[in-house]
Amino acid sequence: MTGxxxxxxxxxxxxxxxxxxxxxxxxxxxxxxxxxxxxxxxFVRARSGATMVxxxxxxxxxxxxxxxxxxxxxxxxxxxxxxxxxxxGCNMGCVFCQNADISKAREMxxxxxxxxPEAIAAAAAELNCRSVAYTYNDPVVFLEYAADTATLCRQxxxxxxxxxxxxxxxxxxxxxxxxxxxxxxxxKAFTEDFYHHRCAxxxxxxxxxxxxxxxxxxxxxxxxxxxxxxxxDSPAEIEAMAGWIADTLGSEVPLHLSAFHPAWKMTDRPxxxxxxxxxxxxxxRQAGLRHVYTGNVHDPxxxxxxxxxxxxxxxxxxxxxxxxxxxxxxxCCARCGTRLAGLFxxxxxxxxxxxxxxxxx
Length: 361
Hints:
The chain is of the alpha/beta class. It folds into 2 domains: 45 residues, no CATH class; 300 residues, TIM Barrel (Alpha-Beta Barrel), CATH 3.20.20. The protein is built from 9 helices and 20 strands. The protein has a 9-stranded mixed beta sheet. A 3-stranded antiparallel beta sheet has the order 1-6-5, with no helix packed on it. β17 and β18 form a beta hairpin.
């Protein structure tokens, strides 16, 4: 322990004073400009006197050990347990939010688990977790808490995973991802119209983050798109998105196409039919992506990994359970020797589909 205490008003970086005396948050493209006592759009970054503070540093909505496939990550330490946690608030305004009880929380008393970064790193080690996930809500809004925790996890040899929408500015982005080993970036759709009307945000900033991650860092990246019937599931849009990913980020970047369930302010749309996921998976593969997965449905074929060269099944999955393993100790196809992009060990983990809630502090 360092002696640092949990503070409801933890000072933060990435802000500046404007000529009119307000403080502008420089974490995300919203650039909220605040008077004393005001909160930003995310609700958790606020102005207190002459500085900006984070109200959720050291305060979590809960901790749970999950299978890493649930993040989802399919090419990063398959089968291993990951300690997952989030806080409250979000800098996106998605009307279809699947975690609205956490990300849209406006009451700090929902943050029942209090834990310093040292305690989280120690718990991950004690629970034999290979990694820690900053998830449930977006780590962009609790950047300092995530980065402080990630630094201590790395000192223990524990990997760090950001589950994020990627809606973040350059300097803050660099600070967050400097501590991350992998990320799943939620690419909501591939049109500005969708981002504007359904997320109150912008697509270009997210694309910038993806390009920066792929070209300027060593962070392993996978992408998730939640397919909403009639909103972002047209073959033309999927083809355009997959083609851009393949051409700009690389054909080996995994894409997860997940089924939507009615939630938050979008309860007028039905769940995504499994046939839509299968169709869109085929479109994305034809557009040049080698690893496209389906999620939130039972689809062993759509969840499994094939060798991009010979087609052999390298990792069989049934939901979150590893059923087949065709990789050699070097992460290469046992049949043809082609290396599979990602981070793999000599064999898969054995955590399976278990979910273990954890209390800290």
